[in-house]
Amino acid sequence: MTVENILTHGLKTSALGSNYKTEYDENLTLLDKNRLTVGTFASRPAAGTAERFYFASDSKALYYDNGVSWVAVSDTAKGVTNGDGHDHSGGDGAQVNHAGLSNIGTNSHAQVDAHLADGTKHFFLLDEDDMASDSSAKAPSQQSVKAFANLARKNLIINGNPLVNQRAYESTIVTTGANQYTLDRWRVVTSGQALTFSTTDNVVTMTLPIGGIEQVIEGLNIQSGTYVISFTATGDTVCTVDGVTKASGDTFTLVGGTDATVKFSSAGGAGTVKLIQVEAGSVATSFEHRPYGQELALCQRYYWRYGGVQYQAINGWTSSTTKGSCLLSHPVPMRTDTYSTAITIANWRYQTGGGALTLSGITYKKSITEIEIQPTVAGATANNAGGFYPNVNGEYLELNAEL
Predict the structure, then answer these.
(1) Has residue 161 been placed in a domain?
(2) What is the pLDDT of the chain when averaged over all its residues?
(3) Which end of the chain is more exposed for a tag (fewer CB within 10 A), N or C?
(4) How far apart are CA 208 and CA 357, in angstroms?
């Protein structure tokens, strides 16, 4: 898409630069025709000859003689000088139309940041890779751009507002083992303790057990660098990242490819926490509310379950009189092909030409994209269609690839 402005002085500017070469040549012809001269601002000739241009070499600004006075051509000034190396013409990945900037040629970082925060005065295209390579001196401007852009998938915490609850965990239910998962991606550390939670206006607040809850961030999602954690807490809530205490807004360093553990605990068992976020950079931004479907898919990389409805069958075929074969695709690729399975065999059946058969065992062939379920039965009709299904409501086949 090209946005082209024909300015009152006859010059053209293409906001996205797609017509840059043509307009550059046309502007050169126009400038030459109207006697462009160069010198310091103080040595410019007196105004009064219409349609002249003058470039002030000291302030790096272009002026237009309208027949009465010299007028700064600020609409076409896309560079920002004296800005500690910021190239806002596109050199560092950000293309900014600086309409509305005052004092062209001497803009500071503070003025550029204020300008970027005003969406009525600019547009920009953002290249995160280029921004990441900028010097630390530019960090405030980087963060203001990141905050404005609100880039998707910035939060390394999955289910940081834990609306996803595939296990149907009920608040206050005591766990029966250490590191037992409850709300998706969150595990209760100490056996015999419970996570209490409530939801208001679609925001989940978790009341913490004494032993705490934690989430392991998969190293595959981490690149080496500085990260910041943010959350809203009450009471005696304590947060640690890899065992080091952190307050909301604190920074820390993570190593790419290495898992990181974020934990929240409450010595009195009454502290609360909500809206948990870990993101790259040194300044915390607003919590990223991802669409529910996207959050669910992120969770299903680590855990999902099939079933719940009686007779909801996984179709297949009977390879012999004693074995069936049913293929189930995962909703998203699993983290590993060594995930565990959990099922109550007595509550499942295999249906074939001879009717519903009771299972004596199950074997599995696993991959990250699907699982082949091979129920062991007696009296099946070989080479016949078959189906594997729960015989009661509320029964599931669970697949677990949690860290």
Answers:
(1) no
(2) 82
(3) N
(4) 46
H, E, C per residue of the chain? CCCEEECCCCCEEECCCCCHHHHHHHHHHHHHHCCCEEECHHHCCCCCCCCEEEEECCCCEEEEECCCCEEECHHHCCCCCCCCCCCCECCCCCECCCCCCCCCCCCCHHHHHHHHCCCCCCCCCCCHHHHHCCCHHHHHHHHHHHHHHCCCCCCCCCCCCCCCCCCCCCCCCCCCCCCEECCCCCEECCCCCCCEEEEECCEEEEECCCCCEEEEECHHHCCCEEEEEEEEEECCEEEEECCEECCCCCEEEECCCCCEEEEEEECCCCCEEEEEEEEECCCCCCCCCCCHHHHHHHHHCCEEEEECCCCCCEEEEECCCCEEEEEEECCCCCCCCCCEEECCHHHEEEEECCEEEECCEEEEEECCCEEEEEEECCCCCCCEEEEEEECCCCCEEEEECCC
Mean pLDDT of the region 46-65: 84
Question: Quick one: what percent of the chain has pLDDT higher than 90?
Answer: 61
For tokens 């607003």, the residue is: 286
Hey, which residues does 241 pair with through a beta bridge?
A: 244, 262
The amino acid present at 213, given as its one-letter code, is I
pLDDT for 108 equals: 59
Mean pLDDT of 167-178: 98
In a domain, 359, yes or no: yes
Examine residue 162 and state whether it is found in any structural domain, yes or no: no
DSSP bridge partners of 348: 390
Task: For residues 217 and 345, state if they share a domain.
Answer: no
What whole-number distance in Å separates Cα of residue 313 and Cα of residue 380? 17
Joined together, the tokens standing for residue 252 give: 């820390």
Spatial CA neighbour of 73 closest among 84, 65, 82, 62: 62
Regarding whether 25 and 76 lie in a shared domain, the answer is yes
The CATH number linked to 391 is 2.60.40
Name the strands in the sheet holding 225-234, side by side, starting at the edge strand that comes first in the sequence.
196-200, 203-207, 272-280, 225-234, 251-254
Q: Given 129, 149, 169, which residue is the final one in a domain?
A: 149
